[in-house]
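As the next step, I needed to go through one protein, both as residues and as discrete backbone shape codes, included below for the reader:
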Amino acid sequence: MFMNFLRENKIAAGILTVLRLYLGYSWFTAGLGKLQSGAFDASGFLKGAVANPVKGPDGNMVYSWYVHFLESFALPNIDVFNFVVPWGETLIGLGLLLGCLTTAAMFFGLVMNFSFFLAGTVSHNPTDIFLGFIILTAGYNAGRVGLDRWVIPFIRKTMKTQGKNKAKATA
């Protein structure tokens, strides 16, 4: 019953719009600030996450696989991460603010939230993850009051047309 409300109700769409705008503003301003400074460098953060990993009550690393990922992939490719993080944050924010490809934007926002969380940054990540899952679960209804109202039907129609054309070509 709650899922139907979340995914189909117009009142829920209004509430989701407020949540979406809140998260969108947060993501957009974080990314834009990094882009405008022109001096964003994730290497210090990543080195700190490797040097001081999340530890359990027994003192052992909890996410050793993630520390290994940071050491063996992220740090050697820091230029990629220095590009992806600010642009990713900005585009996630823009998608959420405009309600355009909302579920995709929220999915990638959650990936980034979990990445920060696994690196040991608590901050506002738990709240963002909670709200993000609500938006992601709501699906199309989260972007109904936004560009998704027109973009999603256009994509569905285009994909359906291409599928029919492909079927005709193979017949």
About this structure: The mean pLDDT is 94. The two ends are 44 Å apart (CA to CA). DSSP finds eight helices and no strands in the chain. The first helix runs from residue 2 to 8.
